[in-house]
Structure formats: C-alpha cells, structure tokens
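Contributing: when you submit paired examples, paste them exactly as shown. First protein:
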Amino acid sequence: MKIGILGGGQLGRMFMQNAINYPYTIGFLEPDAEASCSIFKNSFTVGDFKDYTSVLNFGKDKDVISIEIENVNVEALKELRNQGKKIIPSPECLELIKDKGLQKEFYKENHLPSSDFYTVQNRNELLNHPQLKYPFVQKLRVGGYDGKGVQIIKNAEDLQQVWDEPSVIENVVPIKKELSVIISKNENGQSCVFDVVEMVFDETLNLVDYLLSPAEIEDKIKEVAKDISIQAIEALNTPGIFCVELFLLEDDSVIINEIAPRVHNSGHPTIEANSSSQYDQMLRVLANLPLGDVCIRECSAMVNVIGDPKQEGEAEYVGIEDLISLPQTYLHLYGKRITKPGRKMGHVTVLGKNKEEIVEKINFIKSKFKVIAQ
C-alpha cells in the first residue's frame, strides 16, 4: 500500500515516526524544501499542495491520499477519487472545514451547539452590519492557522484593525476552559474517542501554551463534550482522524469552536501517554486496520516550544540538559532551522501521577528551556 500525505510539516514528521513500523510506503508533498518531513528524503516531494496539477501528479501512484494541513487543492482530490484512489477524509469534508463560514453553517444545520455568528464579505459590510455589537470575534473564512486569522474587536476604536476579507463574526462567549476531543473513524465505521484534553492558550499569540490530559473537569462534562464531538464527526460522514475544539462556558454548557480534520497539536501527548497515539490511529484509519486502544497510561501535559517573540534566525536551544534531567519528560523538536516569533519549533511532553507533579514540571520547563536565535 502506498500512502500519500499532502503537507510535510511537524504533524507529518510525527506520523512518519510511527508509520515506519508498518509495511507501507509513505510519501509527502510539501512546498517548503526545508520542512520538517524533508529529513525523510526518499519519501519527500517538493511541490505545492494547493496546485491542481501537482496534487494530481503526486497522487497518481498512491492508493490512499490524506492530509496534515487543510488548505489543499480539493478539485484534484476529487479527480483522484474518480480514478479509484481513496481520499481520507473526503474532499467534501475538506471543502467544508477549510471555510469557517461553511463550518458554522454545518453546526447550525446539524443542531450542534456553537456560538451565534454571521458572515461578511468585506470590511464595509461588517462596519454597516445591523448585528454589529462589541465585543466580537473576527475569523477569516479561509487561510487562518496557529492563531493567525483570528482577532477580538473590543470596541469602536479597534475597528481600524478589522480585516477587509470574507469573515465569520462571532459573539464573544464567557469561556471557562478550552477543551479538545480527538476521534478516529475507519472505513468500517469503527470509531475511537480519546479522553478530553484541557488547552491553556497564550493570549498574546492566540495558540496553545500548554495542555493537560485528562482535562480537569467533572465526568458529566467530559461525557457531554465527547457526545457532542461524536455527533459532529458522524455528521461529517467520512473516515479520518479529527480534533473537535470546544469551549466550556461559565454556566458549564459545552459548545463547539472548530473542527480540524487531521491530527492536532492537542493530541501530541498521546505519543507517550496513551496506548495508541493519534498518529498510530491515523495510520490505522488510512490502512483501514482495527483501531487501537487509546486508554491513558498516565496523566500528562504538553508544553509548546515557541519561537521568541523578539527573535528570528538560526535556532539554538537553551537548557536541553536541564530539561532531560527530569524523569518522564520527552523532547520533540520539529527540525526547523529558523526560529521566528510565535513559530512552533517543538514540544515537550511530561508524565506524572497527578496534576501537582505535572504543573511543577511545566513551570521548571518554562523557566529553563527555550529557543533563541543564534
């Protein structure tokens, strides 16, 4: 079996680290010749996954094609499916997910809880919209990732920074915690649900600072979060591996924020903390194998290694010896040569018996380990 992955970043790198244990051939299509997966030279093709011809040529000798990034050429995937290739997740799913406006309509049509919203085509339409009220969240409909393409407009003075692009406008909701549920589903309809994870965000960069697994919430809230996530993935009606990002509100209700139709930053700790990781589940889904046991072996946390906000250049890692002196601590660097402000350069996973032990390790890591520019 030949498996093709559109995208060759850190998610593909961690997928490959697991996939080489199986008897399949893996290939990546990625425009950046120095991307994380470039280390796998015999499996790495430099090419634009947004380009119709590039995707078509890449997929012609593959049996299964999947993604590690949403913003790919869907029309080429439809043609490859017409040629008999398996596309996981389906092109229709990718079309829906890559457009945040279509995502919000999907939640509404399928009676899935989400924040109130409306869509606008440009800045002028937003400024004159009858439902405009403060504060609100502006999300670009396409192209946003890792905190980019999302901003909160708090008052009329902030209107000068409004983007002049098609956007989703959401009401600001009272968030108590941000949660994540990862679900895998194979072609036979078998599905597997990881435990609920709690994400703590860097408010400046608007991306995950660290996360805790399992989430520190009541069991009944966990069940609600899982049930909502399962309903959403069933409605998408395609095999794949998915991350459902959710908000736990102050009144203890749970709503969907967004869905990613791929492995996800919030699933990184599963490599060490779960019997079968999200990357192992992805491989099993693509090969239509029985899904793995995803039970938690031990409590865990993940700390993202983020580029310093004031530095750009050749990456240098400070404090590796301090870091690896900690027991049950696992460093994952993504092989990125250049550090940039807010760029994900790697992550650290820690295991422990309880939250207190884990939080102590998180604080130690954040004080001792960092990436700087040489």
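Second protein:
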Amino acid sequence: MNAVPTNQSPASESPSPSPSPSPGPSRPDAPDGGPAPDHPVTAGPVTPDSVTVGPAGSAGAAPWYRRAARGAFADLSPLRENADYRRLWFGQAVSSVGQQMTAVAVSVQVYDLTGSSFATGLVGLCSLFPLVAFGLYGGAIADTVDRRRLGLIGAAGLAMVSAVLAGQALADLGQVLVLYAAVAVQAGFFAISSPARSAMVPRLVPTHQLPAANALNTVSMNLGLTVGPMIGGVLIGAYGAQAAYLVDTVAFAATLYAMWRLPAMRPLGERKGRASVLDGLRFLREQPNLRTSFLADLAAMIFGMPRALFPAIAVGFYGGDARTVGLLVSAPAVGALIGALFSGWISRVHRQGAAVLAAVAAWGLAIAAFGLLHNLWLGLFMLALAGCADTVSMIFRNTMMQVAAPDEMRGRLQGIFIVVVAGGPRLGDFESGAVASLTSPAVSVVTGGLACVAAILLLAARRPAFLRYDARHPTP
C-alpha cells in the first residue's frame, strides 16, 4: 500500500473526445483561475442510471459478449476522459514497483542480519509512529497548500531514502539500526505527501466516475505490488538487497517527472488559516458510517496481516528462500489485481456498507486458511483470495469517504485514512511477530485471521445502520 501515486505521459497526450459538461465554478487549480478544465466540482453521488455512455442505443447494438465484457472488466472511462488522472495513474504504477521491491529488500535484510521474526516485525513498528504523526499533520497541510507541490516534495524525499538504503547495502554496513532509521524517515515522507496525492482524485474525475477511478487505483497499485516483490525477490537472490534499492532510486526519476506534469492543486475557495487536525478528527467522529469503515479496515490490518512472518514462513513451511518470500508478498497483490480488473460490477452495488464487512470477513477467513495449509500453491491461492477481498473493501471504503467529505476536509480525512491503511499493517507486523515469538508463525496467522472475523461480527452487531448504508442515499 505504500505506493507513491504519481504519473507520466507524453507531452502530446490528451483525453479522448467526450461530451463536454457545462462550465463549472471557478477553481484555483485551473490555468487562468477560470472554470475547471475537465468537469465542474460536484458533490453527492451520481447513480449509474443517470449517466449515458456513448450515442443513444449504442450499448444495445453491441454484441452480447461485448456487453458482458463491459460489465465485468474495470471501467476505463476515467483514464480515457481525464489526462491528468491518467498521469497520476501511470505514475502510481511506476512508483509501486520500486517501493515494493524496497519493502521486500528491507524485510529480507533484517531477517538475514538477525534471524528473528520479532526483529523483522519491528520494521513495521519503526514506521508506525511517523505514519501516525506525519499522516495526520500532512493531511492538514494538504488542505491549505498546493497538493501537487506537496506530492513532489514527498516523492523527492522518498527517492533520497532509497538512495541511502542502496548506499548502506553497497557498503555492507550490516547495521539493523540504520535500516530502522531509514524506514522511519521513509514513512515520514510518505505520510506527509500521501494525503495530498489521494485528495487529488476527486478533483481530477467527476463524482460518478469515483468508484471506477478507485478500482483503477487498485489496479495500478497492485501492478506494483505484484511485479515489485517478484522482481525484488529475483534481484535480491541474484545480486543482493542493493540491487532492489538502486532500481527503486532510479524509478523515482520517472515519478518526479510525472508529478511535475500535473496541474496545480491549490485549495478551493478562500483560505481561512491553517487547517486543524482536530477538525478532521471531529468531522470523522460525527460520521458514524465513515468511522465504522475505518474500524473494519483496522481489524483486517492489525489481526489479519502476517507479512512480517513471510521470511520465517518461507523457510519453515516451504524450505524456500528470498524468491519464496517474493511470491508470498506478491500473492495478495495478484488477487487484488484480479479483483480490480474484474470490477465492472462494483458500480451496481448500492449496499456498500454490507459489502465492506463481507469483504473484510472473507479476508480474515482466507488468512486463517493460509496459516493451516503448508502447501505452497494452496497457500498462495489463499493469499490471492484475501487480496481480492481486500480490493473490494478498499474500493467501497474510498468511494464512501470521497462522496461524504467536502474538498476542504479531504486532505485531513485522507491523512487519517493513510494512518489506517499504511499504519495498520505496521501495527499488524508487530502483532504477528510478537505472537509468533510466543507461539509459532502458524498459530499467529490462524488466530489473527479468526480475530479479524470476530471483530467484523462485533462491528456488524454494534452498527446495524452500516449494514443498511445505501450509496443512492449516502448517510456518512
């Protein structure tokens, strides 16, 4: 989840022809302060029935198999119709590959130096505190500054950290503390800029395309999560951790260029002083459905995220090496990618709260099954099922939040969101590593998955209104 969403495209790139909407209100990020170039800034959901795609009657004229494919595969209209979003999407794919290679390299390097699952789990704890502190603060900053510029600063900082990691590996320092410090600084840069990048999406696509855009975001992110760990495992096995760090450093050159191509993203309306983190927390406290969606994701990430155990599982369960670790890390991303590619049905689901809880419960059951199976291919299949369920949950949670939050609050809510989606797994790393050190990796994985399911059942019992949440009549 730690991709840096930026993007690149040729200078001549332009969106595909589409019917032009009526001019919207003045927007600060428009080139001349005039109307927004792509669409008016809107609020509230637009149902699929209210959107006409293509000439009248064209859908009925298409062969049945093409209509079926359109309904099954991911909706590409945000990429076709919005050049700026297209740049953001491609940049996210580029950065995801390098960052996930680095994540695997750090995990493998710490385990090689210590031979301890607990020490590997501490990597997550080292990044947790910067994510929480700077994620909340970064969200407040994003509501008052140019979000594009903040994204550039974050990408540059992440590139420097990758260069430092490459340097320590090439020098063969063998110091775990250096790795812990680099991970903490990396988490800080990510947390400062990520809320700004995430809050860009509702400014780049119209409201009715947000579910499709969120599905495409998971495609881009999971392309990196799938390809990155596999390439990282091969490079680490053949040339050492320094190879993965160097590739990540070079990849950020493309990311920085892509972010530079985006338009300015200054706050809408008149600025009223520095945004307050507490205002964002108070807003979330008053939105019970949004709050429940955050709690559901925390249950999955804290109890059902055994990635810190992958190095030990690769050796203990399967007798593998760094290549096996790469397969384990990438398997959930493969499932997530498949789920996102076949997300055409997403826009037809209105009971989004029930869908979130069902998806998170499915994640927990798949993780528990993974802990019980010591066959590599069955284990990879269960991790892929978990990743598919996570994609469904992520799409609906992002859409619910983006529809409910006004633009002046999106940065702060995205800051809280990034604390959950990025900080939760780090806490999960610590939890799974600690339980494994007291029992065994298998016990840690199985009990964590079952605890996730129990937490979801408790949320469903305490928040029945969340089960009734209807996207046609959203009540945050």
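If you have annotations for the second protein, write them as plain sentences, like these:
The radius of gyration is 22 Å.
Residues 83-114 form the longest helix (32 residues).
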